[in-house]
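pasting for ref
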Amino acid sequence: MKSSSLQDLFLIELSDLYDAEHQLIKALPKMAKASSSDSLRGAFEEHLEQTKEHAARIERIFADLDMPPTREKCKGMQGLISEGNDLLKKKLNPEVQDAGIIAAAQRVEHYEIAAYGCARTYAELLQNRQAVDLLEQTLQEEKDADEKLTELAQQINVEAQTPEEALEGEEPKRKAKAAS
């Protein structure tokens, strides 16, 4: 089928997002299990439940369009998850691994934020208010998840530093104070 309209593009984007969410439903439990931080594990477990709702919202949009939900392989998400899995195979110390897991998860969130933002814009232009509302709700939850990961990273990244790295990070501050 040759796609030639914004409606066609909207459906392609929804199918891609639907597959991306299903890939995440499989990946998030692995990320939670690999996390040594209880707060990070909890964040992934919470986001898993949200991700299931994200997929259900896409199903509602398809239903409103009188179409069955379809999945078009999301190669972007596949690549991001693969990179995260590669990190887990490196057998880093737990704090460093948690820092890496957060970085991988934030790449996923940024990808989703971009995709949901585009889909929402298409829905606005197509004057599909129901889809706009559902996509905006998911978009906000993805932004909130990214913010939560940033907050966790502020503590976990510091814990990932070796004592020597922590001291090296202090050295420029000492030099700056001495210069003033």
